[in-house]
Design a protein that fits this description.
Chain B: It is an enzyme of class 3 (hydrolase). Chain B: One of its GO terms (molecular function) is ATP binding. Chain B: InterPro entries: AAA+_ATPase (IPR003593), ABC_transporter-like_ATP-bd (IPR003439), ABC_transpr_LolD-like (IPR015854), MacB-like_ATP-bd (IPR017911), P-loop_NTPase (IPR027417). Chain B: Belongs to the ABC transporter superfamily. Macrolide exporter (TC 3.A.1.122) family. The complex is a heterodimer of chains A (about 400) and B (about 230). In chain A, about 50% of the residues lie in helices and about 20% in strands. Chain A is an alpha+beta fold. Chain B is of the alpha/beta class. Chain B has a single domain, classed as P-loop containing nucleotide triphosphate hydrolases (Rossmann fold). Chain B contains 8 helices and 10 strands. In chain B, helix 5 crosses helix 6 and helix 6 runs parallel beside helix 7. The longest helix of chain B is centred in the C-terminal third of the chain and has 18 residues. Chain B starts with a helix and ends with a strand. The chains are: A alpha+beta (about 400), B alpha/beta (about 230). At the A-B interface, helix 1 and helix 10 of A face helix 2 and helix 3 of B.
């Protein structure tokens, strides 16, 4: 109790130095947590894309929808599988789609941006029930009407309701805005699949997404289809497919971020070491006094370590608090796995708060180790000022 | 053995020598010193700078070890103690008063006095009671929550004395306790030490070069070039 008071007051007594050290430690924790938040936000966005009850079918060997090609005949047979849910209007819950990556010049800034376009059909809303139209309506089949995800509407002024998008040498009228719970679909433009195929001279679909009557039956369904020589398809659960598409980017964010964090942390640890060394030098007589009163070397070591741990703890809390301000801030970048513009947010979890604070405490501890050991090694008589007379 | 030693000696030194190596040469600070201090004595050790009186005090306090010889304080042979044992021994038996008070600047008067009690198993309430008693004894019951910078030199030294007696040690060692004080404050401190000796029976060893301070003790010994001048 008295020890903690002693350590805290000493930090407060040198508050300018303490604050500078705290800022250093806090900055590192801020970067560390922000990176974790970003990578997590990305994975969360991609992991939310799709529905766990759905299976996505791509042509065998294709890693993404862009590379995949499924013929009209093949998809007809595949959709007729008994595992697939039949909707109220006796339609099968299967949607055949084409996925396209377009480069669009943003009207406001004239910069080039990548846009994901999906040719689909209204049954997509039955296959993915978490999607909802928030403004306007769904496109009419057979027309050049499109709907846009909420992130697209936010980033492209020309993608607002009743505005016109130009791509594939045609004009597409935005008739609706949809929301997909912060998933990757929010960064897409959807329209009629037949219109898109005609416009882009496609004869095959990119993928087919099926809603399974029994989601747990997916492994068996997958095994059956993938081993059937009639089809050359690969089957994945829909969210797993989308999560996999962000792996590369998430890893890049983590690796770059952790590298930065490690480099920064060396500086912060040195800062803590310098602060604690100055503190030890300044308090040599005090150390001698405490030892004279009967405190052991181990007590002195503990007192200074406690002080540097408290320094780390405070720095950690500062950094985490600063990082928390980023929570839910959305950024948009190109997902290198797909080439598409993808919007995703920083997302803080309790685990990251713990990791950030622990990391800071660790830096404090490492930084305080050498000065604390030096303080503990002092001989009493020398510490008291070597008055041997 | 002298008569004094028969009366339960608190300190007994036998052939104690302390040498330092300075710049390659051996310097003797204490030379073959033997004496005893009976319990309940207020002893003043006098001597000029460099006479070895502080070193002698440090050896008795167990914060410095002699080069040779034996030191028995409060029934314990100090040379047999490990460093950790010595620290625990100091906490129990020694109250030390520094010339420069050496209060911890970030702690209040009460907290400074409480420090030695942090090494005991007393409860919080018991510690608070001890601190209050000690501060009352030195006349600073109304300065409990003051920080050292808010106190005068004399008051700081009285807090230092309170800290030295709070754990009820066997012996109080004071290194030039009035060296940094004005005459009046110095008198207060000396009166306080004399009272502690007289009323509580504390054994006190005070190192000083001030004859007026030494006069307040029951017994004065002169240390000259590491040798103790025997009483006439």
């Amino acid at each position: 109790m008295l020890w903690s008071v002693y350590s805290l007051r000493n930090l407060w007594a040198r508050r300018v130095t303490t604050l500078l050290t705290l800022s250093g430690l806090g900055l590192v924790v801020f970067v560390f947590v922000a990176i974790l938040m970003l990578a997590h936000g990305l994975e969360r966005t991609m992991g939310r894309t799709g529905d766990p009850s759905n299976a996505i079918l791509l042509s065998k060997g294709a890693l993404s929808e862009i590379e995949s090609s499924l013929s009209r005949d093949q998809t007809g047979v595949l959709a007729a599988q008994l595992d697939v849910v039949t909707l109220e209007d006796h339609q099968v819950a299967a949607v055949r789609e084409i996925a396209l990556q377009l480069t669009l010049r943003k009207q406001d800034r004239g910069s080039l941006a990548s846009l994901s376009v999906r040719g689909s059909s209204p049954v997509a809303f039955a296959v993915r029930p978490r999607l909802r139209i928030v403004q306007g309506r769904v496109w009419q089949p057979g027309t050049t009407e499109v709907i846009v995800g909420s992130q697209v509407a936010r980033q492209f002024p020309e993608a607002r309701l009743a505005e016109t998008l130009r791509f594939g040498r045609r004009e597409w009228t935005v008739v609706g805005i949809f929301e997909a719970e912060g998933s990757g679909f929010d960064s897409e433009v959807w329209g009629d699949v037949d219109q898109m195929m005609t416009t882009f001279h496609r004869t095959a679909f990119s993928s087919m997404t099926l809603r399974l009557a029994d989601p747990d039956g997916l492994p068996a369904f997958k095994a059956r289809l993938e081993h059937d020589p009639r089809f050359k398809v690969s089957v994945k659960r829909e969210p797993e497919y989308y999560e996999g598409k962000a792996e590369g980017l998430a890893r890049l964010i983590r690796v770059t971020g952790l590298f930065l964090t490690v480099v920064f942390s060396v500086g912060a640890i040195l800062g803590a070491t310098m602060t604690m060394s100055a503190s030890v030098a300044h308090r040599t007589t005090e150390i001698g006094t405490l030892r004279t009163l009967g405190f052991t070397r181990s007590h002195i070591l503990q007192a200074f370590l406690l002080e540097s741990i408290l320094l780390g703890l405070a720095g950690g809390l500062l950094g985490v608090a600063a990082a928390a301000l980023l929570n839910r801030v959305t950024i948009s970048t190109v997902n290198w796995d797909t080439g598409a513009e993808l919007a995703f947010g920083f997302h803080l979890t309790p685990g990251m708060v713990g990791e950030g604070v622990l990391f800071a405490v660790f830096m404090g501890l490492i930084g305080g180790l050498v000065p604390a050991a030096r303080a503990a090694r002092l001989e009493i008589v020398q510490a008291l000022g070597e008055r041997t007379a | 053995m002298s008569d004094a030693a028969m009366v339960d000696p608190v300190v007994s030194l036998h052939n104690v020598t302390k040498t330092y190596i300075r710049g390659g040469t051996e310097v003797s600070v204490i030379r073959d010193l033997s004496f005893v201090i009976p319990a309940g004595t207020f002893l003043a050790i006098m001597g000029p700078s460099g006479s070895g009186k502080s070193t002698l005090l440090n050896v008795m306090a167990g914060i410095d070890r002699p080069t040779s010889g034996s030191v028995v304080v409060a029934g314990t042979r100090l040379e047999q103690l490990s460093e950790g044992e010595m620290a625990r021994w100091r906490a129990r038996h020694i109250g030390y008063v520094f010339q420069t008070y050496n209060l911890i600047p970030v702690l209040t008067a009460a907290e400074n006095v409480e420090l030695p009690l942090a090494l005991t198993h007393l409860t919080r309430r018991e510690r608070a009671d001890h601190v209050k008693t000690a501060l009352r004894l030195v006349g600073l019951a109304d300065r409990m929550d003051h920080y050292p910078r808010q106190l005068s030199g004399g008051q700081e030294q009285r807090v230092g004395v309170a800290r030295a007696i709070v754990s009820d040690p066997t012996m109080i060692l004071a290194d030039e306790p009035t060296g940094n004080l004005d005459r009046e404050s110095a008198d207060d401190i000396l009166t306080l030490l004399a009272r502690l000796n007289r009323e509580l029976g504390k054994t006190i060893v005070m190192v000083t070069h001030d004859p007026r301070a030494a006069e307040r003790a029951q017994m004065i010994r002169h240390l000259e070039k590491g040798l103790l001048e025997m009483p006439p």
